[in-house]
Amino acid sequence: MCSNSLLPLSLCDHHSFGASDHNPHYGLYTGMKKRLVSEYDTVNMQLATLHRKPPEPSAIMGRKALQAMWRDKSPLAALRVFHAELGDCFRVNAPGFTPVMLVGPEAARFVLVTSRADLRWRKETDPITRLLQHGLLVEDGDMHDQLRQTLTPALHKRVLSNYVDAMIRGVDEVTAGWTGEAPRDLLPEMRKIALLIIFEALFKHDFAPDLATLWPAVLRLLSYISPGLWMLWHSMPRPGYANRIRQMDDYLGHLITSYRAQHKDDVSDMLGMLIASGLSDSVIRDQLLTMLIAGHDTTTASLAWTLYLLGAHPDALARARAEVDAVVGRDVPRLEHAGQLKYLDQVIKESLRLYPPAHLSARTALADLDFDGYRIPAGTRVLLSIYLTQRDPHHWPDPDRFDPERFSPENSAARAAYTYLPFGGGPRNCIGFAFAELELRLVLARLLQRYDFALALQPAGVRVHMGATLEPRPGIRCLTSPRRVSETSDAPPALS
Ligand code: HEM
Question: If we measure between CA atoms, which residue out of 346, 324, 349, 295 comes closest to residue 444?
């Protein structure tokens, strides 16, 4: 073999076959040679490609990434630098943290559909697996599929009308405390609303009396599963969490026992369905905690980001509010209103594009895999970036600009699949997708119907924090004032 390629010696230029003007077969030889060389080149390239490792950031890129992180105060800025420089498949080379990062529609199809069986979700050492144990989110294989079958009917489109009252009550309960003139941070306020909704809708439980007592536990659980030093130092001691996890476990245990006593044979909500399915209390606890975490933290972030974007774009706020006034008027928002709030839906979709609360689909390769010619060895942590996919300038012109018109019917029609995936995709997509869509529309409609919002911070001062979800930091400080009844003839009534 020639030392600098996979070509046999005889086909290399410096070992040519007797090229000479006197050779009668010279023309034939050179023609054959050219063809063979080009075929071998193709094979060479293919072989080399098959064994390519995903590229890693160079030292210069590392410096650029650090500058971007410093500017934006977020590690997402570093990932954007790497994506722009290295393409849709690259390896992060931080000490102790070396996942392969995948971006774009092809990568999404690869992770979520075609190679799904070779990519497992569960990682025993991850805090989220320790916390949720056998919860749907962290299970794989048959156990996952069985749980999904049991839980799906409680979140199916058919039953969503059952949850509308709980959604409106959640808003009214929390906003009843919005007295005084001072600005309030909408992030915790949206968390309170989302928690009340998930408990009442899915477990028939009024969480309001216990909200203050369990608030520190909820925040502690979220910080336990958020990215942190434990990702680099795997055996890092993490004291201070066990008590809060126990407090939540006791609470959920009590909830299961009292549900059994009070709602015998009731299968009209998720907890009732879980009890009827004969699962053990410990596996039921895992599903309740999964729904509680996955089903409230995401909607909290999404509501807060959407209100931030509306606050920063007064035209969009005015248009969304005019739509709510025209569609809902003085009524309490209902299921049929939600379907008519087309512009509000575009705003929500654009907010989920810019700030997807679940910004990564994280998996581990079970076998050696090949993505786009890159070799991903078994055992590699594979991270599909929803955030980078939805901010990719190849698919989203001027990607950082807030523009709800991207989701108008005309502009949505030609969109390529898997370029927009805030709820994931494939058989393991978000089970609460329809629930969340309804919740976001109804909560925002109720808020816009009843309140004026004015940001009490500089929009540019808000940065993206990578917690359990993507959260706005330092929060969304906002003035909230009840709308005056005289504002429009259809203005909503004051709350009784
Ligand atoms: C704006 C709101 C929400 C967003 C953006 C969101 C996003 C996502 C995404 C991206 C996934 C897939 C993750 C992956 O591929 O690894 C997912 C899965 C999941 N979501 Fe959501 N979600 C939302 C609301 C909800 C709600 C309301 C619930 C429950 C009521 C919920 C429960 C779950 C569960 C249990 C899974 C795991 C499903 C499975 O593995 O089969 N989510 N969500």
Answer: 324
